[in-house]
Amino acid sequence: MTDIVVVGGSAAGLAAAITAAENGAKVVLLEKESFMGGIAKLGMGIAAVESRFQQALAFPFKRDDAFKLIMEHTDWRADARLVRAWVDEMPSTIEWLENMGVEFELLDIYQSSEFVTHTGHLVKKTRTIVMPAEEPKWAGVTGEVRITPKETVMEGGRTAVMITIMTERAKEKGVEIYTGTRAKKLVMKNGRVAGVVAEDNSGKTLQIDCKAVIIATGGFCHNKEMLKKYTGFELGRDITVIHGVELLGDGIKMAWEVGAAEDAMSPALIVSPIPTRELSEAFNQPYNLVVNQKGERFINEEKLGANWVHLAYAIARQKNRCAYIIFDEGIKRHMETAGFEHISYLYRPARIKLDKKLFNETVERLSKRKDSPLFIADSLEELAGKMKVDLETFKKTVEEYNRFCETGRDRLFNKNPRYLIPIKEPKFYAFKCGLSMYTTVGGIKINERAEVLNREDDVIPGLYAAGDCTASVFAYDFSLTYMLWGSNLSYALNTGRIAGRNAARYIKTLR
Ligand SMILES: Cc1cc2nc3c(=O)[nH]c(=O)nc-3n(C[C@H](O)[C@H](O)[C@H](O)COP(=O)(O)OP(=O)(O)OC[C@H]3O[C@@H](n4cnc5c(N)ncnc54)[C@H](O)[C@@H]3O)c2cc1C
Fold this sequence. Notes:
By secondary structure, the protein is α/β, with parallel strands linked by helices.
């Protein structure tokens, strides 16, 4: 018997467990994997407003600004009281993590004209973290990964340092952590939550009796059936996942089974990543042309490198849910001489130019790959053939686009004339992009105290939930994650703290 069982040992679960323990509760945490941190250990940083880091800024973003931005972006479909509670918690969560030993630096690199990046608090790589070979990571990354204060495979993985510190803190506060233990079912007694049934790695079933449960099991990106039923996407056919941590929606199903109301759900949608820095930068420039499988334009290319969620949403509407980003030798020369317009914050300071040698080497390497998404051609006809788009439609699209470039007016999507460079000079380069996701967001309906609500909108006594499995706010507009840079982890940590505090309060009322 314990006071509280937390299900899920990542950002939301750890924040909930530590907070509940700090508030005097006896806590057991169950994590199905052999490691802690779920996908939260693959990230870079956390959104917060009114933290001590922002006081030095000329135009700091305030809590009221963040609240307004979130509510306007979700058209007030998100729960306003929950959003307010999340936003209000932001500065103290940064302080709370700092007191634990997590260090931050403000993300002050220009990322995109569309995002308020200075809310981003990057976790400092103050320790070396080794992610063993058998631990699932970002798609395409295998083997042992060392996150060191100097270098990482990518800039991702900074948050692994935070997860390590939070896990240590949880243990210090007496949280009993069981990894390799998968929660299966909630136990109810007289309408209240009274326990969790779980299974360990050896297949042994165990029941932990408790007074409250906090569900923090993340999304359901690897659950084919749920994905199809609740989002319409078919895993493997029209969408992929960018990491290998298996998230099956267990907690969402467990909550629904005891009467929890469904809340909006969606994949945390992005455009499938373009491999290597050189190609990623080159193809993410607003000078490029984007066409769908039919050979038609469907987006203002200014979105390239500026708002990849908008690009992903637009791709989701297209045939085969894919797009081709195209440039020619003239645009390539422009990138070599004038430099890039958009620079990914992951890689380099702004205004870097295309490195011809590196680009050619990468292109050569990638072209040899079977099913390469990169196409190179000496004519538009050849390119259309390689992309398998209708030649006549594609030629018309390019002719029309080149006319827009000559007249300086994009009559279709009103692209900024600055970015209108015609596509006419061989060689032609195209990259095929599809859809990918970080995870899914939403599923369990909660209120501003992170209490789970039933279908009558009443609280299910003793049941709390936090993090991605409750994050319907992002299902309404996933751009929010970049608008307030780092807001997914921010939501997970803050709702986790709210759940932990309120669950600890609740069990005191039972004594
Ligand atoms: C590559 C990558 C980079 C990212 N970078 C950022 C970033 O920089 N900033 C940002 O804000 N967001 C980022 N995100 C998103 C962010 O990581 C998630 O929103 C966040 O991790 C959600 O936390 P969570 O605790 O709700 O869920 P998760 O991190 O998904 O964790 C859920 C946990 O529950 C466990 N679990 C599931 N089922 C069970 C069960 N039945 N029993 C026991 N345990 C179970 C899982 O194993 C997992 O550990 C990134 C995501 C990815 C994939």
